[in-house]
Amino acid sequence: MLSRSEIEKLLGDWNRAWDRHDLDGVMQLFHEDIIFENWTGARIKGKARLLAAWAPWFKNHGGFKFTPEDTFIDEPQQKVLYRWRLEWPSLEGGFEGKAETRCGVDIIHFKGDKIIQKLTYSKTTLDIEGQRIALTANV
Q1: Taking the complete model, does pTM exceed 0.70, yes or no?
Q2: SS3 of 11, please?
């Protein structure tokens, strides 16, 4: 079982890998049997499948930046509630390439020292140039 400080360190290392756009570094924290659900409801099981799904995203969307906004760690349950803000060039129709901000939450479950489940939820609106835009499922 991980201590709170161990979880904080792992998340810090993981965040730095995201900041570097280092897919291999991001993947290091995932368990082989990871279950990932994204904001559209898509579900991926297995580290190899998640790597295959994320590789094109990392390759084609290098301008992204996740900023942690709040983190709640439940040490006895080995779970984390992680609130984040994503800033990147928009993929939304009519706004392609413009600065976009979206906010969301990850519910993260640890098994040993790896993430076994990552459930991602996003607000249904995003901000582009000061405008609130309804989120679409084209990502």
Answers
A1: yes
A2: helix
User: What are the structural domain ranges in the chain?
Assistant: 4-134
Closest CA to 52 of 27, 18, 16, 19: 27
Q: Could you tell me the two tokens for 19?
A: 């900041």
DSSP calls for 59-81: HH-TT-EEEEEEEEEETTTTEEE
Q: What is the dihedral of CA 70, 134, 63, 49, to 10 degrees?
A: 80
Give me the count of residues in the chain: 139
The topology (CATH level 3) of 4-134 is Nuclear Transport Factor 2; Chain: A, (3.10.450)
- Beta bridge partners of residue 74, listed in sequence order: 79
pLDDT tens string, the chain, 139 residues long: the values are 999 999 999 999 999 999 999 999 999 999 999 999 998 889 999 999 999 999 998 888 778 999 999 999 999 999 999 999 999 998 888 888 899 999 999 999 999 999 999 999 999 888 998 889 887 655 4
